[in-house]
Amino acid sequence: QTDSLLKSIGLQVKVNLLEDMIVDMNLGYFEIGTDITITGDLEDPSFIGEATITTGEVVYLDRRFEVTEGTFRNYEPGELNPVLNLKAQTEVFGIEGSGGRENTRTYTIYMELSGTMNKPVLRFSEEGGMMSEGDIISILTFGQPLGSVGGDLGERLRAFAGQSVLGFGTRKLEQVLRLDRIDIQGDIFKLG
Description:
The chain is an alpha+beta fold.
């Protein structure tokens, strides 16, 4: 139920931090500089302005991606739906080839989160730009491109990558990999 008292208390609070705000959660660690004003009301607070990640990392499929660029911009005072711009990268040591011809290789994988909080878009690429998202998901998960992974599992990974699933909702990944349980806990984007 809505609370009329909270709804009637409007917010207009300019945030001026002396140091970067630290966010430490299961999806990563961020130090964020802000130039924002908290708006809305006490029941549905929002913000206008920009929050910039000065340093941090994102955890995805048990890999740590170092943030190279990150901003969250919201200029609609009545709605909390910031525009996302997050870029991160990781190094994965993997195996290439099969049948006794395996070579170790280092893959540089890039993650890009764009769109809005309500409609995020997550994309992966690799340094050479030649791999499909299915190969990249396979490298992140198993350290090998799809050609080196067994047929049935490879097909499930291709389907997962083809759906461009954000991946923070783990139920899809459980279904694709036919695992019993994957847990990600916390109020990831809604902040309470």
